[in-house]
Amino acid sequence: MQSEVVLDMQGISKSFPGVKALSDVQLTLREGEVHALMGENGAGKSTLMKILFGMYTRDCGIIKLDGKEVELNGTLDSLEHGVSMIHQELSPVLHRSVAENIWLGREPVKGLLKLVDHDKMWADTKGLLERLDLEIDPREHMVSLTVAQMQMIEIAKAVSYNAKIIIMDEPSSSLTDKEVGHLFEIIRKLKGQGVAIVYISHKMDEIFEIADTITVFRDGQYISSVPARETNQSKLIKMMVGRELNKMFTREDHTIGEDMLKVEGLSLEKRFEDVSFDVKKGEIFGIAGLVGAGRTELVETLFGVRSKSAGHIYIKGKHVHIKSPDHAKKNGMALLTEDRRQSGLSLMLSVEDNTAVANMDSYVGGGNLLEVARLKKEAKEECKKIRVKTPTMTEPIGNLSGGNQQKVLLARWLLTKPDILFLDEPTRGIDVGAKAEIYKLISMFAQEGKTVIMVSSEMPELLGMCDRILVMHEGRNKGILDRNDASQEAIMSLALQKH
Amino acid sequence: MANTTASAEMLPTESSKQKQLKSLISKYGIYFAFIGLVIFMSAMHPAFLTVTNILNIIRQVTSIGLIALGVTIIIITRGIDLSSGSVLALVSVVAASLAQNPDWHAKMYPSLPALPVIVPILAALAIGSLCGAINGAFVAKTGIPPFIATLGMMIVARGAALIYSDGRPVSDLNDSYNFIGQGEIFGIPFPVILFIIMALISWILLNRTRFGKYAYSIGGNEQAAFVSGINVAKYKILVYTFGGFLAGMAGLVLSARISSGQPGLGNMFELDAIAAATIGGVSHAGGIGTIQGTVVGALIIGVLNNGLDLLNVSAYWQQIIKGSIIVAAVVFDMRKNARKN
Ligand SMILES: Nc1ncnc2c1ncn2[C@@H]1O[C@H](COP(=O)(O)OP(=O)(O)OP(=O)(O)O)[C@@H](O)[C@H]1O
Ligand SMILES: [Mg+2]
Question: Which positions, given as ranges, span the membrane (chain B) (predicted)?
Fold first, then answer.
């Protein structure tokens, strides 16, 4: 016996200037189910959810909640109807407490003067967090929480609205495996309470672990809805990309040459200590470890974003002092950063400018003027190469889907033709098809005798692509595994090994 | 994988045509508003739409316009410059003191021989640039808010102008200097020519050089610009220096027009310049703005000043009207940006 339908969306369409983001799609949600929404980057998943959450108005279509047709104008409307959303990008008020963040804009008040009733707020928050088995102090400021904890707070906030439907747009993209485990426990708990959950993710294994039903979109169109039990990974991929994807990881034959980068005793105060390794020309070098192991800080230090407290760096045998990213770039390095909002994108600028920004030096022509035609051409070609989906190159990048924004950032750095390419979580939020493309690009890049250094929390990606993998734990180099010895277990045992 | 890039096969539907019209209006709203204003003024007063009056309007807005060009780029980097009016004054007294007629009895440097006009010009541009560079250095190197850094310069430069001139006007300037503000080439006032040239140069800088691309990028997301290997400090200093340079040029033009350098000159010009840029669509959140927008913004201010004068609107009412228009322009701009979603 199937449970009751809580949400029924039919015939929904939505266009933006130059893009038909959704055309005639549908979604049916049942009480207590986890419903995965899948599709390539730009397929329209976030757009549909933003319509449901009252952020966008649909061009046409019907939305029924509990069998009744509703109009959702604005997020308050949706919250009132029991719909809540956890966004792809979090935006907490950092210097306020957990409790204040949860009750922001609807603080409990008391007395004539309507002063904020802090006692009630602390107590309510405590109860709420307990209900979700979260061990976080309501008085703690958001800044001191990890990304995962912030995410949990967002979920708690959603629950506090007595939401019957919770939308989670790529909630796991910045979580570690363990944190994802915790997230799933919470999801199961909510499910038991009859809450329906829309779960958007590009990670197949997660989908099959948590989802009851899977709905697939492609290019703004509804493809189908299937019970998770009745499908499998390759069927799903075929539905998403419209063809078979025979190979995930490409590893072209590449010869490993002389030293490219050599790091000796590199340290950054309080973050990592005494890290040494060397990477060869033509090598794909992975850096594994749990979140907080100091991997991001390590590559940022190598790239001059942070200044090292000790150690030496050699490029092609030459001792270098990297003082800034500017300087690192001149030494043939490139860094795709982990956090695309913070340190990657200029949201209001065009796709073109976001692509070309790191490569401006090479477009300077006569009279110090930029060769704009060449800039436009090269930016466009690079974006095309990795299949960025955008209506035009002058579209503000903020209008692109999350995965496509990530691809633009990759294009930005490939355009600079670096010798050493640092990639920090390169495929975060990127769909399967595009992932395979990116792996192919990485492999071709190495084949040309260049070096790739890749930080990733996705084990299969490291194991599938890397020649060697450095494992870090709490800011220390725990060992370097050769491709042939590397396995998930080997990495984990190094990562968790006590000194 | 179908449409990877442009989805040209998608024919515009009725509703998307309407949307296109809407986006056209919001994109070019400022230009429509300007044309509307000109038509309105022409209908209200026969003397408005004459060549003499038009040139007059442009001549009157050149000082503010020059400053506005610089402040546009500064605001694009998410900064602000409050010092330009004072810098203009400082520049005017220093440049004037180097351009006085030799036989003038109240000459500032009695023994100074007649100098070629290039001397005061270079001095003016150098002082303006230096003030700007100091602004930029404080903003870039100490991290204090641009508002504070340039507020300091605003007060300091005004003080310096008063000290230098001892609070008095520096007058009786030579003809070649006066040409900068009063001369004409082929019947076009020299300041107007200067403004057009500087607007073109600013446009080129902003759209055709690294300097401009980096200005947008820094304003769009400074951390991202830094990580993309942009020398953020250097370019910030350059941006403020260019702003100071233009304030210096405005000082030259204005003192030459009235044939006198005065420590009280340019009072509140920075605000009119910021208003011109803002009306022209520059976003104080950074990363957005164009030179052509600012030029039209400056012209709107000029047309308002001139037209309201012609219509005998009292100076007091003019302030109220101008203030309202600035706020209305920004509200319109915000709505336009909000409507995107
Ligand atoms: N505010 C907007 N303005 C213009 N176009 C937009 C806007 N939001 C989304 N789009 C376009 O709509 C399409 C669908 O985007 P959406 O964000 O829904 O994709 P998605 O399926 O969530 O992708 P991803 O997996 O990359 O997050 C994209 O082509 C995108 O460029
Ligand atoms: Mg999305």
Answer: 28-48, 54-75, 82-99, 119-140, 147-165, 185-206, 237-258, 315-332
